[in-house]
Structures are given as structure tokens and as C-alpha cells.
Amino acid sequence: MTTKTREQQRDDLLEQLYFLVAPIKQILEDEDDWRPKIKHLRAVFRPQGSALEIPLRDFGIIRGIRYEAETNRVSSFVGQIGSFLDRLESTSSDPSTRRSCCDEFKELLSRTKEAIKNIPCDTPDFILEANRPFDAYCRLRSLFQGASKRVELFDPYSSADVFYRYLWEVDPSVDIVIVTSEHNLKGVVRADFISVSQLFAAQRPTTYTLIMNPNIHDRHLRLDNAICHLGGSIKDAGKRTPYTCTQQDATPATTTKLDDLRDNGTIWFSKTIGHRTS
User: I want to staple 160 with a disulfide (CB 3.0 to 4.6 A). Which of 112, 196, 220, 247 is the partner?
Assistant: First the structure.
């Protein structure tokens, strides 16, 4: 069985929506009293277990960044259609009310379709040839910007570049954590990293944490609930060697490994601890 692409899954979701709302459009356009016909449609758009729930869940087979946030918006609008039908059942179908309800439904349907179209179809995975640093920057930057809840970078060879290349445009509400190794921060690189980290902390006093852990070796990027393995430190992405970014299954072992690196390191800055300078 061939797995559908995310674009195909999104098209299926739109097609399913059109199929489900067709009876509602017909009822609103008919001259007859709509109230007797509404009851059987309410179950289709109930807030929990709507007819779009399975297509939405199937769409998650290839989950990408911001999948959860965008599909939650779709589910919310589907629930609003259900609430609209609840009100419709107890509302008379005189001409004035009919026009008002038609306009309201068109607006709600338009917003639901837009939410479906906004579900991202890109995936984090990519492989780049050597000497493609700008391509690597663009791909990584889009991943950082796509996070809606958290960004956690695990990189033993961090530099100040990460702040102004990737982190400064991340939404202010997103929690950012950098886990790196103090032993690999030396000389000018160390001074620059700490200096810029202090500036960054001043503007994100409650949503930025810096952690030093000497046991970090691999490079990972956790974006919301997605975990990506990086083929090298992001400061060198795409320069002299091929660069890869591979989404991994968020297995208990992988999740625990990253949680341990984060939770068992030395905090250099957090919302409760002022920034260390050395």
C-alpha cells in the first residue's frame, strides 16, 4: 500500500469537508423549514468525534512542524460548525434569518477551508550536498520558525551564530533551550557566545534557558514534539561536508536521552537563575 504524500492527505481532507457540508448548504438554500433536517447532521459535526477526526488523525501519519497547532485550528472550526447547527435547529427559517445564517455559514466554512490549507506539508528531513551553506541555513531557519511551543537545540559545538541566524525570529511565546558543552567553548568563540546569550536572555527572561552538559555528543533539534537528528553542528551546516536533518521517532528511549541531557546539566541561565558570565 502506497503512503499518501502530505499534499494528497490535505486534498483528501478538503474533499471530505466539501462532502460533509453539502447537505448543510442544501438545507440553507431550500425554501422548506430546515429544523426537521438538522438533527441527523449534528452528529457529523459534534465537537468530539466529528466525521473529520479520522482524516485529521490519518494526516498525522507524516507529522511535520506545526502539525498539532494547525490541525487543532481545523478541529476548532469543525466544532463551531456543530455549534452553528445546534443553534440552527432552534431557529426559525424566515427569509431574514435564512440570509443571516447563510452568510454566517459561508464565513465559517471559508475559515475552516483556510485552516486546512494552512496545515504544513513540508517535512523536516533533508540531505544537502557539501558547499550548500545557504540552502542549509534556509531549511534550518524555516524549522526553527515553525515551532509553536518549544525549541530545544542539543549541540556540543554552539556559537553565537545560532542566536541571530535561527533564534531571534522564533515566536516570543515559544520556550527555547540550548544544551551545549562548556569544554568546547574556547577563546573568542566562548566570549561571543556568552555575550550574545546575555543579550538574548535580557529580551527573553522567561522563555530562554542555557544549559551546559559535558556529556553531550550528538546533535539534535526538538521542535514541539518532533525530534530531528542533525548531521553536524548547525554553525557548520552545509559548508565542507554533506549535511543531513532526519526526523526521528519520538520513542521513549530518544525522549529520555534528550530529557536527561537537559535536566542533568548545569543551568547557566533560566527564568529563575541569572546569567553566568564565566
Answer: 196
Question: CA 108, CA 20: separation in Å to the nearest integer?
Answer: 14
* Rounded-to-integer distance, Cα 203 and Cα 223, Å: 21
Contact between residue 171 and residue 146 where contact means Cβ atoms under 8 Å apart: no
Which residue type sits at 46?
Answer: R
C-alpha closest to that of 216 among 259, 161, 172: 259
Smallest Cα–Cα separation from 78: which of 55, 103, 54, 44? 44
Find all residues with CB under 8 Å of 183, minimum gap 6, and list them. 214
Determine how β-strand 208-212 pairs with β-strand 219-223: unpaired
* Residue 179 near residue 270 (C-beta atoms within 8 A): no
Contact in structure between 258 and 152 (CB atoms under 8 Å): yes
Q: Is the pTM above the cut of 0.70? A: no
Q: How many residues does the chain have?
A: 278
Please tell me the distance from the alpha carbon of residue 56 to that of residue 228, in angstroms, as a whole number.
Answer: 23
Taking the C-alpha atoms of residue 121 and residue 39, their distance in angstroms, rounded to an integer, is 35
- State the Cα–Cα distance between residues 83 and 53, nearest whole angstrom: 16
Rounded CA gap, 27 and 38, in Å?
8
Instruction: Look at residues 127, 168, 123 and name the one whose alpha carbon lies nearest to residue 143.
Output: 123
Of 3-7, 22-26, 195-199, the one with minimum mean pLDDT is 3-7
CB 162 within 8 A of CB 135: no
Give 16-70 pLDDT, tens digit per residue: 778 777 888 787 777 676 777 776 676 666 555 555 565 555 554 344 445 565 6
In whole angstroms, give the CA distance from residue 78 to residue 47: 7
